[in-house]
Amino acid sequence: MPSLATSPQPIGKRISQLVVERRVRRIAMFRMSGDQSSLDISLRLAEETARHALNPIVVELQPQPGVGDKPAPGLFDVLTGMAALGEVIVRDEQSGIHMVTAGAMPDNYDELVASGRVALVIDALLRRFDAAFIAAGGMDGGDTAGTISDCCD
Predict the structure, then answer these.
(1) What pLDDT was estimated at residue 7?
(2) DSSP string covering the chain, please?
(3) Mean pLDDT confidence for 63-76
(4) Across-strand partners of 56?
(5) What is the 3-state secondary structure (H, E, C) of 103-147?
(6) Who has greater pLDDT, 55 or 22?
(7) Rg value, the chain, Cα
(8) Does 116 have pLDDT greater than 60?
(9) Between the CA of residue 21 and those of 98, 101, 112, 129, 136, what are the distances in Å?
(10) Which letter, b or e, does each residue of 94-114 get, where b requires 16 or more Cβ atoms within 10 Å of its Cβ?
């Protein structure tokens, strides 16, 4: 696969092109610095992919800060057996893109991510969707980033 670093195209366009060409299906986005969250970037790339008649999904790995209310069931509810995968697939109101939100942050977050169950969920989603953009949050250099990177194309 050609290096993204040497591509003359902006990286977002190049990633979308690789998805459209069906060369990649599992893409993790990490926020390394700057103002944009990995969720915003993942949604933007999924929107670009959807313009090519593909059906992407965004999977959120880092719960977003909320105001008071308990978050809706999400990925970590699936991983802990509290919800079925079909129950946590929603559509983003602004973009219309399908999503699996993170849900509530579990006490054993690192253990769940490292268990390999996230990769199993992504594989199950790819039976229905053409590509999965994984919004992995901030990159701390820990095992979580490596585990997520390992399950991507």
Answers:
(1) 45
(2) ---STT-SS-HHHHHHHHHHTTS--EEEEEE-SSS--HHHHHHHHHHHHHTTT--EEEEE-SPPP-SSSPPPP-HHHHHTTSS-GGGSEEE-TTT--EEE---SPPTTHHHHHHTTHHHHHHHHHTTT-SEEEEEEEE--SSHHHHHHHHT--
(3) 75
(4) 131
(5) CCCCCCHHHHHHCCHHHHHHHHHCCCCCEEEEEEEECCCCHHHHH
(6) 55
(7) 15
(8) yes
(9) 21, 27, 32, 15, 23
(10) eeebbbbbbbbebeebeebbb
Residue type, 9: Q
Q: Which two tokens stand for residue 67?
A: 């105001």
One-letter amino acid identity for 144? T
